[in-house]
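Thread: "does anyone have the structure for this chain?"

Original post by V.I.:
We have the sequence but no experimental structure in hand. Need at least a predicted one for the grant figures.
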Amino acid sequence: MNRLTTPLGPMFICATEHGVCLLEFVDRRMLETEFKDLQKRLQAVIIFGENAHITQAKKEIEAYFEGTRKKFEVQLETPGTDFQQQVWSCLRQIPYGVTTSYQQQAENIGNLKAVRAVASANGYNRIAIIIPCHRVIGKNGQMTGYGGGIERKKWLINHERTNKSTT
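Reply from O.Q.:
Generated one for you, tokens below.
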């Protein structure tokens, strides 16, 4: 585990030898629960330190906030159910600077009735920004729940829209 500073506040970042497994704002509600769940799922203890995945993610996140990175290449390790994996994979397909709805996400995974389950799986995403759950809004265009807070969600969406056409 390590910390990084962003324009939206400090974040914790965790990685295994296989990839980044957590990137969250330090004030996120339920963060302790996420840590405990992650340790259980990975059968590992979270300790302070840094590895190549954390170093790479820090550089990529910095470039993202500078507006120069639109896609992330860092390896990820995302333990979860098959359904969660499917939803998180779908999240990673949402283009930079574009928003979608939970209903559209449910359609994209081929399960129109799974809107609430999709929203729940989004909420279990432990890797903010890189797995861009902030790009999912209500079908009426309203900002809906985001673990980092609605103001951060708005900021991230505006940041991406502003930088969408840059290199």
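V.I.: this helps a lot. The beta strands are 2-6, 9-15, 20-25, 100-101, 136-137.
O.Q.: and The chain has a mean pLDDT of 93.
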